[in-house]
User: Fold Transcriptional regulator SlyA from Halomonas sp. RT37.
Amino acid sequence: MNENIGFQLSRAPRIWRAVLDQRLAPLGLTQTRWVTLYHLWRMPDGQPQCDLARAIGVEAPSLVRTLDQLCEQGLVERCPCDQDRRTKRVHLTKQATPLLEKIDAIVQQAREEMLKGLDEQEQERLSDMLSRIEANGQALLTPDDCQR
Assistant:
C-alpha cells in the first residue's frame, strides 16, 4: 500500500487551484469567486445556496460574503425560494456569461496541460478512481444540515 497517496491526494488539488489562480488573476478573480461562479455555471439554474455551498465544499454561511460580492459585481442574483422562504436560490446573470466563457477556456487549457502524458483511457480510469475515492470519503462523513 502506498502510504504517500493521502499526501498526493491533498497536493494535486492545491496545485490545480494554484495554476488556475495564477491564470485567472488577470481577470480580477479571487479563488473563492471563480470557484463559486464555475460551480454555479455547471449546476442547474436556481441552486439553493446550501446546495451550492455543499458542491463547493464550504459551509453555507461562508458562502454568503462571496455571493454578496458577486451580486455587487452584477454576476449573480439571489432570490427567495417559493416553497421555503428561508432558502435563497442563486442565479447567474447574463453579464456573467462572457466571463464564464473566458474562465472555461482557461480551465480547459490548464486541464489539458496538467493531464499531459495521460491518454484518454488513462484519464477515464483516473476519473473513475477519484470518483470512487470521493464516494468512499463522503460515506465516512456525518451528514450536514443546511438551513439556508
Summary: The first helix runs from residue 5 to 24.
